[in-house]
Structures are given as C-alpha cells and as structure tokens.
C-alpha cells in the first residue's frame, strides 16, 4: 500500500473500497442475527410468510398485521385486536472463484430474524392503530479470516431494526390512508485486514400508505418509506497503517423506497397481484469514517437505483386454508467498478411457495423462498490489484413462520 500522507488537519486513507456488510437487530428483547436471502442492495423486504409466499406482492392486499410494514393503510381491514409474531430463518450461500482459481464460500449457518406486529381497531370508528417491530435493511456475510480478498472483505454486520407506530384512517368505504414515524437503531461491526470498526446510532423517518378498493375484484395499493440518516459513533482500528483504537464517527444514508401494486380477484377463491418496488440507491455514494486522530477512511458504495418486480397468486382452499406461489425479479444495485464481496449483489430470481390457515382466534402461515443469480462475473474492479474480480454464485434459502392471535 502507498505511504500515508499527512496534512496539518486531516489524513485521508484510501483503503481498499468496500461496502458495509449489514445484519439486523430485533428490538423488544429478541436477539436477531445477520443475514439476507434475496434482497435488492442492502434491503430486507421479507417480513411475513403470507407475503413471502406471494413473492412479496402484498401492497394491494395487506390484510394481516404485517401490513404495518407492507402497506399500513391495509390495517383498516382488520377487526378488534390482533397480535402477530414471526420468525424468518435464512441461509446466505455465496461461492467465489477468483480468475486464478482460488475459492471461498460464505458461512451458510441459518440465521434468525424475528418480527412483531400489533393492531387495534377502534369500534365504530374509521381509525385503526398499529405497532410494528421489524428489520427493513440487512445483509451480514462471513467469508472467514482468509478469503482471497481479505484486504477488502472478511466479516461484516450492521444491526438495523425499526419500531414503527402507525395510524390508519378509512376516509371512504373504498379508500384508506395511513402514516406514522419510524425509529431505527443501528449497530455496525466491520472487519477486514485493512480496517475494523464498531459503532451505533439511532435515526428517525416516516412511512405512509394508501389502499383503494373501487370494486370487489380490484384493489390498488402504495406505500412509502422515507430515507433515514445515521451518524455512527464508536471506535476503529487501521491495522494496515498500525493505527490503534480511536474514537470514530461515520455518517450513513439509508435511502427511501416505495412500492405500488394492483390486486385482481376474479372470484372469492383467487387473488392475483403484481407490484413494483423501487429503492433510491442512487443517493448512497460513500460513507466516510472520521477518526479522532484526523484519519478519514472512506467506504465506497456508488450504488444505482433498482427495482424489484413481484408477482403472486393465492388460492383459497376452503375452511380457512389457503396456498400461495410467487416470483420476484430483483435488479442488481452494485456496479462492477465498486463491487465488494461484503455485498455480493446481482440480478436475482426469487421463487416462493407457502400455505396457511385463518381461524376465529388464530391464524398461521409458512412461506419458503429461494434466490439465485446464475453466476455473476465481476471484472474491472477498482479495488487494489482487482481483488474483487471473479465469479460469484449465489443460492440462498429462507423460510418464515408466523402466527396471529385475535382478541
């Protein structure tokens, strides 16, 4: 590496470019482990088994308490008090082969991501309130200590959990709207041969939703999540320059995203839905970690905005039973030049299936999905010596189980 140049005020070390590996923390006394099974960029869009089984095409249906995440306007369809808890088990499996034939693979140990939702519908009132606790972003990967690209990526996680209170208003029998703040906690823990950091912060944003059902066969939905800016505070080390622990801050931007979709129900037994999910990744360029000893370490992202195209079908089987299948095409957000193994994003194909039952007091559902990329060949990497160049093959698995108690 080049010799460090110091100015009178600040030294800016251009370490190998790498992205934050992100994991998740579940607030409300539940521990959550990092992982991702088919996200766009760093997002974690898989928040409930009924939605997952439908390829996350749920914004225009949104008829269980997880609507707090997918489309908060949908909670006006619920009655009384409903509490829903779920657990998402994921296994992230990416294999790497360098141009010279060296290989590496991520740790595939299943990881757990819980969710909680509560909804209260006021009797003889057009208003419904809800509270959700979930993780809207997340990717945490462990390549071990000695992958071929160790100077730019080894292990990374960033805990990101959101508490979301919402209020929904049925403005008209066919139209509902909703809004509420989001309070997010984040904790970053990053490790490469060149740089180590651990820190945390809390940030704020808001979310909103709309559900319009002009006809019993047709329903239109839209939801929006604002951007959240965080100022991480913690400590870092720079082994590449023999710099020990120092207080460090870093400003990070988690972008806004929006979803819109349409549901068609030709009969009471069938529900077809198609959604488009957009994330403003163009707003995320880099995160600069500033040490108290005046050394600055930039983390380069240079993501591009991307879409997920989501399609799902649900069939009612009678006596409260139902089954669903779905498909997602998730666009790549990471350009070759700034690609890093911490976030091996690519164009992903995601297939899903699930079953469930709705009863008088209890509902439950199970949803499974897989995600694969068909191999990505990275060339032209800006990392030193082209360390990120090579072939990345992804095949992830995820399963979510949830139950609702109605009282």
Architecture blueprint of SSEs:
Blueprint: E1 11-12, H1 49-53, H2 67-70, E2 81-91, E3 94-97, E4 103-105, E5 111-121, E6 127-134, E7 141-142, E8 155-172, E9 175-191, E10 196-215, E11 218-225, E12 228-238, E13 243-254, E14 257-264, E15 270-279, E16 286-291, E17 295-300, E18 306-318, E19 321-330, E20 348-358, E21 362-372, E22 376-378, E23 390-406
Parallel strand pairs: 1-17
Antiparallel strand pairs: 2-5, 2-23, 3-4, 3-23, 5-6, 6-8, 7-8, 8-9, 9-10, 10-11, 10-12, 11-14, 12-13, 13-16, 14-15, 15-18, 16-17, 18-19, 19-20, 20-21, 21-23, 22-23
Could you characterize the architecture of this molecule?
This protein has 407 residues and is mainly beta. It has one domain (12-406): Outer membrane protein transport protein (OMPP1/FadL/TodX) (Porin, Beta Barrel). It has two helices and 23 strands. It has helices at residues 49-53, 67-70, and strands at residues 11-12, 81-91, 94-97, 103-105, 111-121, 127-134, 141-142, 155-172, 175-191, 196-215, 218-225, 228-238, 243-254, 257-264, 270-279, 286-291, 295-300, 306-318, 321-330, 348-358, 362-372, 376-378, 390-406. The chain has a 14-stranded antiparallel beta barrel with strand order 2-5-6-8-9-10-11-14-15-18-19-20-21-23. A hairpin with a 4-residue loop joins β12 (228-238) and β13 (243-254). The termini are far apart. The model is unreliable at 1-9 and 15-33 (pLDDT under 50).
């Amino acid at each position: 590496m080049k010799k460090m140049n110091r100015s009178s005020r600040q030294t800016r070390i251009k370490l190998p470019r790498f992205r934050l590996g992100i994991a998740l923390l579940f607030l409300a006394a539940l521990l959550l482990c990092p992982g991702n099974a088919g996200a766009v960029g760093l997002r974690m869009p898989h928040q409930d088994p009924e939605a997952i089984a439908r390829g996350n095409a749920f914004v225009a249906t949104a008829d269980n308490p997880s609507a707090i995440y997918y489309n908060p306007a949908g909670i006006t369809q619920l009655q009384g008090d409903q509490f829903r808890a779920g657990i998402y088990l994921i296994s992230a499996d990416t294999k790497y082969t360098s141009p010279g034939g060296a290989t590496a693979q991520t740790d595939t140990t299943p990881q757990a991501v819980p969710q909680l939702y509560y909804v209260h519908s006021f009797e003889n009132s057009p208003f419904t309130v809800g509270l959700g606790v979930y993780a809207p972003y997340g990717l945490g990967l462990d390549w071990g200590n000695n992958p071929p690209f160790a100077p730019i990526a080894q292990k990374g996680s960033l805990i990101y959990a959101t508490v979301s209170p919402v209020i929904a208003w049925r403005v008209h029998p066919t139209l509902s709207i909703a809004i509420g703040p989001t309070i997010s906690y984040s904790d970053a823990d990053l490790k490469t041969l060149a740089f180590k950091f651990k820190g945390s912060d809390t940030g704020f944003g808001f979310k909103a939703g709309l559900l319009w059902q002009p006809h019993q066969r047709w329903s239109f939905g839209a939801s929006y999540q604002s951007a959240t800016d965080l100022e991480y505070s913690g400590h870092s080390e720079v082994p590449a320059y023999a710099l020990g622990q120092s207080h460090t801050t870093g400003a990070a931007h988690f972008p806004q995203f929006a979803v819109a979709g349409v549901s068609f129900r030709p009969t009471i037994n069938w529900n077809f839905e198609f959604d488009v999910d957009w994330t403003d990744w163009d707003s995320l360029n880099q995160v600069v970690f500033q040490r108290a000893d005046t050394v600055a370490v930039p983390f380069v992202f240079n993501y591009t905005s991307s879409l997920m195209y989501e399609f799902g079908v649900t069939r009612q089987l009678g006596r409260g039973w139902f089954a669903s299948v779905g498909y997602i095409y998730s666009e790549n957000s990471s350009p070759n030049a700034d690609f890093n193994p911490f976030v091996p994003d690519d164009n992903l194909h995601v297939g899903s299936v699930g079953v469930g039952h709705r009863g008088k007091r209890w509902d439950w559902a199970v949803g499974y999905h897989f995600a694969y990329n068909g191999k990505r060949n990275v060339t032209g990497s800006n990392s030193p010596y082209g360390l990120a160049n090579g072939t990345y093959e992804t095949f992830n698995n995820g399963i979510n189980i949830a139950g609702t108690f109605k009282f």
